[in-house]
Amino acid sequence: MVGKVTQERYDELVAESKLLVETERDTHFKLGDNALEIEPLQPRGGARPAPGEELQSVEESLGRFADDIGVATSTIMQYRYTAAHWPPEHRVKGVSLDVHRILMVRPDRFELIRNPPFNARYGRHCWTQDAAKREAGWQVETPVSVQEKVTAIHGLAADDRVAAQVAADLLQRPAVAEGVPPKARIEAIKDLAHDERVASEAATHLLHRPDVAFKAMNDDRARQAVNHAQVERGRQAREEYERTSELAPTRERLERTAEFLDLVGACHAFVATAGRVVPGLRGRTMSGDERAVLAENVARVRATLDWIEHAAETGDVDVDEALARLLRDE
Asked: Is residue 87 part of a domain?
């Protein structure tokens, strides 16, 4: 059985329908030929009326013809154009006018149409509209290959809202997301996160993953940006506290005392360390490189001590460029 009929009856219906299709094809081409006789294709620039004559447009004359025979003008125009590109000697019996129409974009159409592709579904060589569209480079009705399916999805998702919803739904499928190349995923994330709010929320969620945070901090620029953000956040929080808190003046006095104690402690630690280390140099002669390194560090220490004395006397903690470079070990 095929559907609700026997194989024998199915074969009879196929044979009968082929005759109908062939008759229809011949009818369509004949209508195109008749329209072409009424209005032959003109060279570029169109026809020109004789002196004193009013030229009737192609649309007007073929519109009248279409109305007289009860067919849409656009259909007649299509039949005419197809017939013009397929002279009778090149038309192939058993192949619909639609296939001829699709293939007329190919310069090798006269040879191509006589060599239909193999159709795996039917197990034979034959032309279908989809097969012709593949040869013409058009989008097919029933996509088979991966690229055809991708093209079909792009066509359906031409609207940005539809595309966004489709992308969101598809990327929720782990296998789909995993199949996207890493570089494409990175570029997609960058494009999607151009909004600062989206970017900050996404970065926060990603940095909650220890492995991601560890790898991100291996990047110098990322690490410096995070450090800068922490310092800036602390500065802003401090300014907000000093501006709004009643305890800010008291805390400032305590912090100044703590800073004084830290500075005295640093001096004490330096003196204690030097007192412990320097005696160990007794009887040792340093190499030229060692003396040079030590001289650089002693210079830094002297400059730092001068800076401390200046800050204590004047309250000015700014440094000039030379001292800044020295402290940076440049």
From this structure: yes
